[in-house]
Amino acid sequence: MISSTVSGICALVGGLNAARHRGCRLVICNLSATVKLIFEITQLDQLFEIFDSFEQVISTETPALVA
């Protein structure tokens, strides 16, 4: 499980870097409690924009581009 978690986090950080390089946002929404805890423990919740729901994402002042 640890290996897949690390691989997933690396993929997300790579995606975040690619999005920022292109002037876009990468947002995460609807995390399970366990995954949210991993983001908090690793302090990645400070790096990523995390929302409780998709509706919360689209209601923000500067909505993310949805692909």
Note the total helix count: 3
Low-confidence stretches: none
The end-to-end distance, rounded to whole angstroms, is 29 Å
**Order of SSEs, N→C?**
HEHEH
CA gyration radius, whole angstroms: 12 Å
Strand residues, percent: 5-15%
The helix-and-strand class reads mainly alpha
Largest sheet at a glance? 2 strands, parallel
Number of strands: 2
* Strand order within the widest beta sheet: 1-2
Indicate the percent of residues in helices: 40-55%
**Overall pLDDT score:** 87
Oligomeric category: single chain
The shape is globular
Write the layout of secondary structure elements.
Blueprint: H1 2-21, E1 27-29, H2 33-41, E2 49-51, H3 54-58
Characterise this structure.
- The structure is a single chain.
- The chain is mainly alpha-helical.
- It contains 3 helices and 2 strands; from the N terminus they run αβαβα.
- The protein has helices spanning about 1-20, 35-40, 55-60; strands spanning about 25-30, 50.
- The chain is globular and about 35 Å long.
- It starts with a helix and ends in a 9-residue tail after the last helix.
- The mean pLDDT is about 85.
